[in-house]
Amino acid sequence: MPSKSGNVSVRTEGGFLITPSTLPYAVLTEEDLVEVALDGTVLHGHRRPSSEWRLHAAIYAARPEAKALVHTHSPRATALSCARRGLPPFHYMIALAGGDDIPCSGYATFGTQELAEAAAIAIRGRRACLLANHGVVAIGSGLAGAETLAREVENLASEYLDLLQAGLEPVLLTPEEMVAVTAQFGGYGRIS
Ligand SMILES: [Zn+2]
């Protein structure tokens, strides 16, 4: 991740292990990670958890299959989120997020339970969503999958913004075409 704007977590038996607040990734060590229960109780660690721990907790509570979560403010996806627009099925890789689009949540103040709930709703039935005027959330069955998906959302947002900027109207894939994409992904192994 290019900046400190974002946070990462991995599910544990008791909750999840999350990056701490106000510590640059460059100096982060394992000891700086904080284990937090889904109710916010700090189980292990001497640092304060990321201010977005509620977002992680709400999504882990809602999505038992999620084992890792990556939250970024990657610039192109964040730009799109500021228009409160998600990504339509303009490219087949949209299916990596688990459906026909990558939705954008409603807006809420960062760090709040309201944002956590808005994110859990937006990502329903998907593995990624945008957060309005804020950034990106991606989940996976492991950290590598969640991180790959977060990067792919950034790539897709970049391509989509380029299309819009060129004044071109993307030709969207049909639901049937997206079903075929998902089947094809299933054939060679899912990424997350
Ligand atoms: Zn954020």
TrEMBL record:
It comes from Roseococcus pinisoli. Keywords: Lyase, Metal-binding. Pfam families: Aldolase_II (PF00596). Residues 1-161 form the Class II aldolase/adducin N-terminal domain. This is Class II aldolase/adducin family protein. The keyword Lyase applies. SMART domains: Aldolase_II (SM01007).
